[in-house]
Amino acid sequence: MYCVCSLGRECSQNATLDDEKEVKVKHENSSSGGGYFTDYAKYRAAKLKSDSTPAHSTSAGAPTITTLVFEESEGRSTSEPSSPFLDRDSVSIAESNVTCLEIRDSLAKKYYYRVFDEDLDEYASFEPVKIHNSGQRGTVPADLSGSLHRVAPAKFEVGNYRMRHFFDGLAMVYSFTIEQGTVQFHSKYIESEAYTKAMSTNCILHSGFGTVRFPDPCKNIFSRYFSYFSDDRITDNPSVNLLPCEDALLAITETKYWTKLDPKTLTTTEKRIDMSRLISVATPAHPHIDAEGNFYNFGTLYGGRPSYYLSKIPPRLDVITNNEGPKPDEDKPQPEILAKIFGQFKAFPTYFHSFAMSENYHALVEQPLGMNVLKLMTMKVTRKSVQEAMEWYPTIKARFRLVNRKTNEEVAQLFTADPFFVFHHINAYEEEDHLIIDLCGYSDPSIIDAFYLKNLDPESGLSRFRLVNRKTNEEVAQLFTADPFFVFHHINAYEEEDHLIIDLCGYSDPSIIDAFYLKNLDPESGLFSDEVFPEHTLPEVRRYVLPLKPTSDAISRKENLITVERFRNRMEARYDMTDGSIHCTFIVIGKPGLELPRINYASYNGKKYQYVYCWGSFAGKHSYRNAVVKVDMESGTEVAWRGSHTQYPSEPVFVPLASAGNDEDSGVVLTAVTDVGQGKPDFLLILDAKTMVELARAEVPTDVNVPFGLHGLFTS
């Protein structure tokens, strides 16, 4: 006789499972999936793979009658991960016309502990790594010479403290240097102030995107108190992107501090370079670079009414690294503020990670994800993170703010779109008085929460069954777990042949609670509609077309203002009389789940182009995974390199090669691949940019881990 308590994901996140023996749980779904059941599950990170009879689909909002059979097992059960891009290794067993899932070694678990739990060592050897040529598919191109530099969050634990968010990991820079057919690998932690102080004090002293700093043990109580009101704890941990500047690399994040690196040794040569002397306090990590090497970027100023400053910084280390500021009498180009745009709302500046630049326009998306200035001002005292100061307003339109590059004045006409979230822009170009903007768009910003380490951890989301013996009134020592689920109502429980059978009405997540808000029960919104239970948010390659010179006649007749024929029948832009804006729809090109886009930037940024290369590792219906994908933006066709189920590629970087021709896609695509298979090496993958066929791979030693990075660049 037992009493049963099932703890869902929210209850189990703070529990420690490592030292407890677990039992595998088999699920038997009695529902046939009829009625209003759908074949997706809101916010579930990965769909189950079936090698024989497929498992019944479950809805995010629709319950299934589930039987849980507990039995003793030698192995450990692991959960389906909450991460949007991890999968698990599962086997499906058909028994008596029902599908039973028995989880074996979890790829998600391997990936999580490889990337987030293992302390990565620096790799200082400059010995060539093993080159594996892909047989009949060719070798390393003879004229491919240079270095692929990447930066990555790499250290997530300091002493007894742990980072909360993936973006906050202490940064490591690494490089694959290619010369005369050989490849060398080198990695090194970036010695930012955030890193050096963390190492010397064994605790986290700088707040990050989702992680709150701890009090400095070297300060007394009064010093600690006053430090709450200073900016000396703004992080300079440059874990996001790299920029080329003269003979150096600049590592950057989304704060005002940049870091200078030696591209050959990867040594940190100058840290905490305060860019607020030249630009605003907060800047996106993706400035644009013109043919002369100038950096263009938007920065946010929070004082008074929030505003966005467009700046231009020349590629001069003497200017960028001069903490006293540039000398006014120099004849060389100086940093300058080109334009100022006031934000839409007071105390609510928008968050942006990138922007678009065409030949004649800068385009900033003022998306309805903003920073609550009051929360930002008080977060040092309230001990809240930057991410916790973000607020999403799904009823507010996204706004395209355009700045004319010739006049540096904002375009008077306002363009809007239905609310969306964007990390990365792909490209923007002009055609027949229209501005075409391509980006990786999301329907909401839930992807940010997905990168909290607790959500990336495949074991943090386990549901736990707590049993109490009714005779002894003591808890059963054995721990039982299951894939994460939510339950309102249990049906029954009984014992049979030393097994406890529990029947309940289970949901894949608790979104059913939100469904019973009266606004959602309104028949016009539709209970169990896609609006109430959307598919897990995946990025889409979206194209927006903004008509720059609409005619007054077309506006008065309320016509579609897009006149380019190949776009006119696929999307709309119509004048909105209520606010004077032109409201634009979009089209989706290719499958969902593509991110970290790269193009032939040097030759085609701001110009009409055809190809984009994307990272495809999201789990979701119809999406790519373990893949690098080339998308034809004109035809919508895709071609992909697919790795094995243990291989996770990173951002693809296009490198043009003269030997490959003069086409837009004449060159190679480079990506670093993390392989979580037992004894499998990580490697640099070299692909033919036209065909996406593997040319070669350079494998690092199996005792060396290549961190999963966000962005990088190739220097020759």
Automatic annotation (TrEMBL):
Hey, which family's this protein in?
Belongs to the carotenoid oxygenase family.
Identify which cofactors the protein needs according to its UniProt entry: Fe(2+)
Q: How is the cofactor bound?
A: Binds 1 Fe(2+) ion per subunit.
GO MF annotation list: beta-carotene 15,15'-dioxygenase activity; carotenoid dioxygenase activity; metal ion binding
Is the Iron keyword given for this protein? Answer: yes
Q: Which InterPro entries does the record associate with it?
A: Carotenoid_Oase (IPR004294)
Gene Ontology biological process: carotene catabolic process; retinal metabolic process
Binding, Fe cation? H286, H353, H424, H711
| Keyword ATP-binding annotated | no
Native organism: Lingula anatina (Brachiopod)
Q: Which keywords does UniProt give here?
A: Iron, Metal-binding, Oxidoreductase
Quote the protein name from its UniProt record. Answer: Beta,beta-carotene 15,15'-dioxygenase-like
